[in-house]
């Protein structure tokens, strides 16, 4: 950029790495896969009430199949956020008995045991919940009329709500890094209205916010931490390096300190709300013709090769990806191959001396053929845990002193 260049320049760390801000396709090293399974994707949609445009929350398998409705509230339910263990979802609801404002609620992964968590005073709202790492609490946004807002924290069942951070600019979408050392959030920077946002971070103890990405006049928002905490995905309508002439929303990713920002999407669509897969290799996001018409898509974390998961004429939005805990294993064997595509089995893993992927798949087929028994021929016991539509299955054998384990996901045939 020359001294006479009048294009928008990002402030903060992005300004220190102007070349990295150019919209070019870069290959980012995918973080090491964690000991988790990629579970279901929760999202909000008006598909059950397109005329009134009231949102409900749904979940689906990572390939877009087996869509399940989780809320049936006549008012709007939005902004789902999976708990770290994959068993609960926090979300925003319309404030009961009020034409405006919101509260925070939670439910199980399968859409049961709905519980309202916040009792916000009249004229105020609680929204945008985000589970703390470890699941011992929830961050959320508390807002009032005008531009008054702050970041609050409460226990997992709504206990002891209290203000945690009060940044100088109205904050949105707060979330802790996986190591809980910092939070990231978007801030409204425009003097009036909500036309200019920037992305900031702050130490867990508070202090002065650090700008991570802020193009003057641009709508930089919805930061999302990668599972290893090294990167942040976000949305922005900034036109940096003439890579977004339409000035529509695109998906970006940057390092956690704001350096090396990269624009991942470059199209005439409205791309928003990125969420990482638990293994850090993919991003789920909404893409459509505008902010009220979109479908859930996934793409590699380095960009390119987008895949559309939902097809609805209205709005499917706010995807969040469930992390299902997985045991330590030695080998990742994929699925069952062509012959097993209809089995509902995915991501087979194995551990133990002499337990090859071929042997692991054989054990999985035995379990399926025997109609999911508690014991499998060969001395293996089966433990099945439901995570709201996906089952985690563990086949263990340890009677000879050598631990052997097969772990995989099983999606039973939907009854809906």
What does this structure look like?
With 416 residues, the chain is mainly beta. The protein folds into two domains: 13-325, Neuraminidase (6 Propeller); 331-410, no CATH class. Helices cover 4% and strands 44% of the residues. It is built from two helices and 30 strands. The protein has helices at 13-16, 357-369; strands spanning 36-45, 56-60, 68-69, 77-82, 88-94, 102-108, 115-116, 124-131, 138-144, 149-154, 162-165, 171-176, 182-188, 197-203, 206-213, 221-225, 231-236, 250-255, 262-263, 270-276, 282-290, 293-300, 307-308, 316-325, 331-334, 345-351, 375-376, 380-386, 391-397, 404-410. The strands form seven sheets. A six-stranded antiparallel beta sheet has the order 25-26-30-29-28-27, with helices on one face. A hairpin with an 8-residue loop joins strand 13 and strand 14. It is globular, with a radius of gyration of 22 Å. Residues 1-9 and 11-33 have low confidence and may be disordered.
